[in-house]
Write a structure and sequence with these properties.
Layout (H helix, E strand, L loop, with lengths): L1 H6 L5 E4 L5 H16 L3 E6 L5 H10 L8 E2 L1
Parallel strand pairs: 1-2
Antiparallel strand pairs: 2-3
Length: 72
């Protein structure tokens, strides 16, 4: 992520899409701190289940179920 930030100096906002587990939460906190230090706004999009792939698989199994990611 840091390499991409260095390559794209005009970025003002980043959306973090990490797993909704302990490792994903810790990493999101770390990234949010680094982004704030660079004066880049950070928003986190949380999957309903553990990760976005599981969300997609659940939609295929049960298409009537509404699954909407949450903003953290």
């Amino acid at each position: 992520m840091m390499k991409q930030l260095d390559n794209n100096e005009n970025l003002k906002t980043v959306v973090l899409c990490l797993d909704n587990d302990i490792a994903g939460n810790k990493t999101a906190e770390k990234f949010e701190k680094l982004l704030t230090e660079r004066e880049i706004a950070a928003t986190r999009l949380l999957p309903v289940l553990k990760d976005f792939n599981e969300d997609l698989q659940a939609l295929v199994r049960e298409p009537k179920q509404e699954m909407e990611p949450k903003m953290a």
